[in-house]
Amino acid sequence: MALTHSSNMASRLQAVQSKIFEGLSATPPVSRSLCIATLVGWLLSLTEFYGYIALTPAFVVPPHIYIWTFFTAAFAEPRFITAVVCAMSILMIGKFIEPLWGGKELARFISIVNVGTNVATFLVIVLAFRLYGEEQLIYAHCGGLIGVLAGSSVVFKQLTPEYSVNMLVVSVRTKHFPSAIILLCLLLAVFRISPPQDVLFVWFGIVTSWVYLRFFQPREGSRGDLGDVFSLASFFPEAVQPAVNKVSTSIYGLLQSVHIVPPWPTNNSNTMSQQQAGSLLYTIGTGPTAFRPVVPAAVSSSQSQIMTAATPIPIGDAKPVDAERRRQLALKALDMRLGLDPNEQGDNQV
Predict the structure, then answer these.
(1) Separation between Cα atoms, residue 238 and residue 183, nearest integer Å
(2) Cα–Cα distance between 293 and 39 in angstroms, integer?
(3) For the segment 52-102, what is each residue's pLDDT rounded down to a tens digit?
(4) Distance (Å, rounded) from C-alpha 205 to C-alpha 151?
């Protein structure tokens, strides 16, 4: 009986191991590397090397100057469950994003969000130490991939804002992902389930991701996504969006005057209209998927048929150029059916 039980256990472990390796082999290379790095970082976090890869504000400044921890801190995760969740999340996110962007752009995005999040968190912790004088703030080890994962939620808000994802008993549109993640992280911190540093990682991960995607991500002949649907105000409830838009526009003008952000294009209104309409058409994957289109009530039945008939982008073997070409063709088809005026002007929103 004992031998039979041991044999069944060994066969189950082999089955799980084969599924893990099968999933890794079917994952794009950059996402697969990040997943492996996360698990390796968890192993190192159990050893004395944890202090050399985690972000410790007191060790970033002289005499230690562990400047590399701004990058390696993302993989310094001593909590096993969190490390596994982060690794699985990276696999799922990379499966959708890497075929669309390419491995090089995904690696650049993750690097920028990772380093930007850690630098901003470091500055806030140092400021808090200056204000309150508690040394435990600057000697606490910080790390984890949660900031990058929160930043990745902004990508889904950009690409498929009107899609709905079933989460347990609720259905959440992807455009609400960043807000939902911030709220969840705040609740976990209040009940002391997660450390308070995670709130900083999540907040700065979302902000860094939006700034890069909004103003700096390379595109064909331009940079950034200046669509109305991706404005800063779109992250807030509709009741406060006008006020947020006024404040963000003023801040943008100040940053643009000192050449921190690029100037606003004068002929971008039609592009914004296309991106806003195209976000309803943008489908990811073929066959069963967690994403389902949610057609707004104001959309007519003919428009709904267009969105349903939109050519999906195959994830397994699609190249970024092909994905963009199919998206542009779908946008043109939608413009023709909706009768959009190419000379139509709109309000710029930062």
Answers:
(1) 17
(2) 34
(3) 999 999 999 999 999 999 999 999 999 899 899 999 999 888 888 999 999
(4) 5
